[in-house]
Specification:
Helix content is 73%, strand content 0%. The protein is built from four helices and no strands. With 146 residues, it is mainly α. The protein is elongated. It has one domain: Helix Hairpins (Orthogonal Bundle), CATH 1.10.287.
Length: 146
């Protein structure tokens, strides 16, 4: 069963990375050219809107990924109730790890895969937000008040 968990973990990680890549690429395509038009400087209100939208969109992408892990746990029979699977998946993906709900020994290796998956994808999201803020800083004109 050890090998099966590694295979399942690898497959779901690949799936969540694809979901994340599609989400980030969609955000890039949506934001490129529309957020910071070359002919004018973006307003403070526009930059705040863009940042809030981006964070919420990334949160939505992470939510999809958490649901995919939860669905896997229910499909495997690790949890009978979707609410428990979703709670466990959220706590694990975010690496919060309360430990009040755990997987049986048969499937617990999967939780380490999910935690690693969450760390990496949150890192990608953080890098994306950092790049956006860096772009906002570059677009901020000297004439704006601090």
């Amino acid at each position: 069963m050890f090998g099966g968990q590694i295979l399942l973990g690898t497959c779901i990680i690949a799936l969540t990375v694809v979901v994340h890549a599609v989400g980030v690429i969609a955000l890039i395509r949506l934001l490129r050219g529309k957020v910071f038009p070359k002919d004018r400087h973006p307003s403070l209100f526009r930059m705040v809107r863009v940042l809030v939208f981006t964070v919420l969109a990334l949160f939505f992408v992470h939510t999809i990924e958490i649901w995919l892990w939860a669905l896997l746990y229910v499909w495997l029979g690790a949890f009978e109730i979707m609410e428990h699977a979703l709670y466990f998946s959220t706590v694990t993906f975010t690496t919060l790890g309360y430990g009040d709900i755990t997987l049986s020994p048969r499937w617990r290796l999967l939780s380490s895969f999910e935690a690693a998956n969450g760390v990496i994808l949150f890192g990608v999201s953080t890098a994306f937000v950092f790049a956006l803020i860096q772009r906002m800083y570059q677009a901020w004109p000297e004439s704006y008040p601090d």
